[in-house]
Amino acid sequence: MNKPLLLSVVVILAIFCRNTFATQADDTTIDITGQTTGPTPFISQLTLTASDTSVIKSIQFSIAPKPGSVTRPLSASYARDFLIDRGYLVPPSSEIFLPVYGLYDGFMNDVTLTYHFLDGSSKTDSTTIATVAFEDPCGYKSPTVLQPRTTDTALSYDYIMVKGSCDDFSPAVIDTDGALRWVGDAGISDVSATFFDNAFFIGSGPSLYRIDLDGTVTFLHDYSDIGVTFLHHTIDRGKVGLILEADTASNFESTDIEVDSAGNVVKIWSLGDIITAAMVAGGDDPNQFVEPPNDWFHNNAVTYNRADDSIAISSRENFVICLDYETSAIKWILGDTTKHWAQFSSLAKYALTLGPDTLPPIGQHALSITYDQKLLLFDNGVGSLFQLPAGMSRTYSSPRKYELNLATKVATEVWNYEMDQSVFTPFCSSVYEDAPFNYLVDYAFVNGLTEDPKYSQLLGLNAAGEKIFYYQYGPVDNCATAFNASPLHLENTNFPTVGPQALNLSTRGKIGPGENALIGGFIVSGTESKKVALRVLGPSLTNSGLTGTLADPALTLYDSVGGVIVTNDDWQSDPGATELTANGLALGDPVEAATVQTLAPGSYTVVATGKDSASGIGLVEAYDLSSESASRLANISTRGAVGTGDDVLISGFIVGDVANATVVIRALGPSLAALGVSDPLPNPALTVYDTNGTAIATNDDWQDEVNALDISKNALAPSDPVEAATILYLPAGSYTAIVSGAAGGTGVGLVEVYNL
To answer: Which of 117, 428, 516, 535 gets the most CB atoms within 10 Å of its CB?
Structure first.
């Protein structure tokens, strides 16, 4: 939160340090002494020589976009420990090997290196990397531009993973300008792939491989040891790791296998066995429907839903079927009820009813759960090819998004993109939502089954529904050029991977004496101690345009039984002041308060007050300084005075870089009276914003929340019906929750963010 403020503090501190004493950046010489071409023209390895490698904290590279491009630079940061683990830095050697990937081929690439040091200082250097042209038989480098990338910078993603079997360099990465930026070097021609843990995972026959962005290829596992003959279609994110879609000796395209990042098997779902058991229990003959080794199911996508611990599976022949993750029990089915499956009462009883103006998905691909708990998929519009009756068919294809009300068993279509019903792509296509309402649509097989020539098309849509780019590839023979393309974020990749946890939690509010102190609570969950930085800002908030800020903040940290752990008034007096500076967390005013503490698992409370009972707007923050530990900051709750205008209660949190996070956000008021609060906020209202300032959720009375049942299941239902709450499933990024009083009400409120 408050990133402009943090940056300005670091700049001011750096200027101050240069004027008073030499930094590690000043004392350390780093030269670029070599350059080696990597396994493809898109990868190069720089050799650096440093006078002292022991003081280097991290090294970042950034590749400048081509002139005229509005894409964000492709950039990555390597932590010192990662460089050592990979063998790129072997202390006490002075040499460092730095992979630079994502280069333009056949181009003079301008690359900036930024060296970060342990004392918080940094410096930059630059170089030029010349690359040779890449021979591209798939045509990724030469699309037909139906619409060039616009100059609109509102699109949330700049890079795209394209999976194809048109040659042996799958997968590939293009940017939204249409330029090819990376290709796989494992010699594999397959569409079964995904991006996970800062690497590509790809199937080849019955085996799984990992391809790192630096070109390192690692064999993970041959699943023929459990009867797998082939990994097909795509690889999707699961609860623990990745879900592979597999053929086995006895089952064709009807087995899903979850594996961890090392390729070890976690769980197996046999759809033939699961559906057979359900049909027998319901009094039907499964032999009339489950017919291996035929293509009776045709599994082509899976998505895990953290909200209710379930997996939704796409059967192109039949339906979308949802299973309980642990028990494999069928929870619901969404599909065309004129198909064969709906003739069996044992299956039809799970069917969701379609809401008004809602079309069922037909021959769907690419399932995903969106940030607001909707089901997104690509509706190809083709009926069954094996099962009879085949159900309805359409002459066009479309991405569709459904809201599922499981209490009433109704599925309602809330969004589609039908392109005037002019695009027909019968197989393989996909749609994925990046940031809210930013989409990538992959029309993988345009004109397939109907006419020639056939093409693949990639379309980008921003949150306003505007076309940002539209590229066409081909003619193509089948889905081999662009299968299930998905957005990638390569503009700021961190090595090692930053996990899906809250890295920074903050709350801004009015601080006063007594009950009007700003009280922040947080939990360290897990089994290990966690190092955290706690800060209370006041005077420096004027740099953000606020008036009435707290002149001289103080903080006190309490343990779960009310014992005082530490107090601080002026941050430079804390023993952790040097570490605050090294982590870029030095405060902008010497009277502001901060401390660095290593805390055992448990609950903690930070009380922010003003010296001499002064009042004003203040900001309480908790930063995770040990994101690699097995523990995490599980939630933050802040109690404070809620007023109007700038005096509302504002809580911010960050979701890490790897996976989506599930959070419950609550705003409490009336129930605080039972805790002895004399002036509780009578009717709290809650609004959640993303990093662009777009409102992504609002709530006044928590029971009106569409996922109120899930809030209750997690034992987080507020005790008063006028209090507010929402549950969100968020991609990486920063978010803000604002608590105000309905109809301008004021009083003491409590805002909580729970990371599930």
So the answer is: 428
